[in-house]
Design goal:
mainly alpha; Non-ribosomal Peptide Synthetase Peptidyl Carrier Protein, Chain A; two-stranded antiparallel sheet; 139 residues; single chain; 5 helices
Amino acid sequence: MIKEFKDFIAKGNVMDMAVGIIIGAAFTAIVTSLVADLINPIIGVVTGGIDFSNLFVNLGDGDYASLAAARDAGAPVFAYGSFITAVINFLIIAFVVFLLVKMVNRVKDAAVKKEEAAAVPAGPTEIDLLKEIRDSLKR
């Protein structure tokens, strides 16, 4: 049983998946910062200063100046701004992953084309074939 588990872990797909998860977790922090620190302020300027992350509807009693204050007070809130931020994060991550996959596929295709070109033996050129035909006809 332990040997089977070692064989399973040693397979390339499992290791590739583990590396992908680790890199994805690190990449999430970068995208979160990109959205919170760069994109949301720009969207806020365009939309007149709206900060999506602080948009909420208080479902309970009381009046709170920010989402953090409402959550600290334990008030039930409908935090649709956090959802909008999560959607923006998802779209950015999906777009970047799309670009990365597209780039990797291009590199992979180029490598395959090089291998195919190297594997195909160079045959006689058209001129060589014509010379052979000419010489055969002379005989």
